[in-house]
Amino acid sequence: MIKFFRSIRKQLIAEHMTGKYIKYAIGEIILVVIGILIALQINNWNEQRKERLTQHQLIDVLITDLESKKAEFVGDLAFGNTILKNSKTAINYWERHNKIDTLNLKVLLKYLAEDDWFFDENSPIYATISGSGLWKQLPDSINRQIDDVYRNQFGSIKSAFAKQTEYALNAKLSFLAPKRLLLFDKSTLELLPIVSENDEEFITKIELFKSGVIRLTSKFKTTIPAIDKLIENLELYKEKS
Q: Which InterPro entries does this entry report, sorted A to Z (predicted)?
């Protein structure tokens, strides 16, 4: 193609057709400029496509992380509701009959011994997103949602877990350990007289433990819908971008 244009130029110069040569030269320049602009536009499209792809991949990873956290909270909420149900049954029975119910006695003692409650709100995914260019590209409303879920919601859950660990450790040290109830090697019939001698203290520990679980489950009930809403908005943003 270059040889073709070059031959035309030589022909016009040889024939002393200066006017036509100037027009041709201008046209050639215009064609070159148009070609450069088209190449730049194509390059821009490719770069934008790559950026969108990277952006969507980051959003997908964030959604996966949120779904994982949600699944964890859903399981914890179900477990918490079971604890509350068993605790309420034991407390109500004691209040009505002034004695310890044997139905869930061993289970409740095991609950009181659980002092390793833990949740790590830190997320490498969140750290990556918040430190990337994606954070600036996302709408402010979504940024605020992400920040609220990872900092506020997850942070409050971590605090609730820490408080629950504190309650359980207190029960372990002040009630279970002194009465040698930590091994869970006794039958319910063997446990009943030990706990019955200290029924008020046992019920107090259960009530304190129950209050912590209520706090935890309330956090799960507000965080799970917040995660769902954030995932929905991230999916919508992906579709529109």
A: DUF6090
